[in-house]
Structure formats: C-alpha cells, structure tokens
Amino acid sequence: MKPTKKSAYITLSALLLFFSCSLNEGGVRAANNMEKYALDYIKKNQLVEESEKILAYYDYTISLDGTEAAILTSSRLIYHNSETLTSSVNLEDIRDVQHRKETLIGDIIEVTTADGEVWVIEITPLNQGETFLKILKSKVNYRSKMKPYEKKNTEEYLF
Predict the structure, then answer these.
(1) Domain limits of the chain?
(2) Measured between alpha carbons, how far is 34 from 140 in angstroms, rounded to an integer?
(3) Which of 62, 66, 63, 68 is CA-nearest to residue 34?
(4) pTM of the full predicted structure?
(5) Tens of each residue's pLDDT in the chain, 159 residues
(6) CB 123 within 8 A of CB 117
(7) With contact defined as beta carbons under 8 Å apart, do 33 and 19 qualify?
(8) Are 79 and 86 in contact (CB under 8 A)?
(9) On the CB side of 75, how many CA atoms lie within 13 Å of its CA?
(10) Segment 116-136, tens digit of pLDDT
(11) In angstroms, how far is CA 76 from the centroid of its own chain?
(12) Which of 81, 84, 143, 158 is in the most buried spot, having the most CB atoms within 10 Å?
C-alpha cells in the first residue's frame, strides 16, 4: 500500500471504531451520576422494583447498552444478562464479600450468599471497581448490624 492509502485506511478504521462506540460514559455509576440510557433500560426491562433505589451500577458491555450489568439497590444485588438470566440476592442474605485485583481483569468481587452460592462481579481496570465494592460493603455491613424488626421500611433512609 502507498503511504496515503495506508494512512487513509488507518484513519477510516479509527473513525469507525470511534463512532461504533457509545458516547455514554462507562465505569461504575452511583445514584447521583447514572446515565440516562441505563435508567431507561432498567425501567423498560423492569429490573428494579419501585420501592428500591439504585445505589451502584456497572455495565459490562463495550457498547454500554445495559444488556449485561451488575446493579446494587437499597435491598438487592442484581446481575442482569439479557441473553441468559437475571438473578438477584437480597442484601440481608449476603454473608461475605471478598475482593482482589487482577492486573488484566481488574477488580474481582466475590459475594457469598446465605445458601453458599458465590457470585463473581468482574469490573475491568480503570472503571472504579472499588467504588462498587465500597457501596456494597457499606450496605451489607449496615444491614447485618440491624435487628430484624429494624430492617422493615429502612430503604428510604439508605443513602
């Protein structure tokens, strides 16, 4: 290839890559900085109940379309994958939260439920995985210290 064709090919490839990506901001989002596309997707697919408040959100997809996401609400941890399943665990049923960082993978958060099930949340490097972890741990620790009668109707006081 001549240098002009080669540079045109590289420029065209870069532009294609740039415009094929969403202009939404990725990474972990908290209640105060949720992206509109995520809120719209969550509402359209009825992923969060009306009584719940979104505390943290992470979209796994490169296109940021919401089809695979980890969602932390005032009462549940939700994993959504539009092609396979949507599952959730109540925060009061979480027994342990562990964290480790892997250089190429990023933050690995392992959540153990009351029935021994282990959930794995992987948040790619430079996407604020520790923010998701911090919010999750604060809610699990807060709820685990509450007496059963105090857990009723507390969602309005969380965050």
Answers:
(1) 21-148
(2) 22
(3) 66
(4) 0.76
(5) 455 666 666 766 655 555 555 567 789 999 999 999 999 999 999 999 999 999 999 999 888 989 899 999 999 999 999 999 899 999 999 999 999 999 999 999 999 999 999 999 999 999 999 999 999 999 998 555 555 544 455 444 443
(6) no
(7) no
(8) yes
(9) 14
(10) 999 999 999 999 999 999 999
(11) 12
(12) 143
Structure tokens at 151: 């857990």
Q: Which CATH number describes the domain made up of 21-148?
A: 2.30.29.30
From first CA to last CA, the distance across the chain in angstroms is: 59
Amino acid at 16: L
Q: Which helix (H) or strand (E) holds 113?
A: strand 106-113
Angle (nearest 5°) at CA 139 between 137 and 142: 105
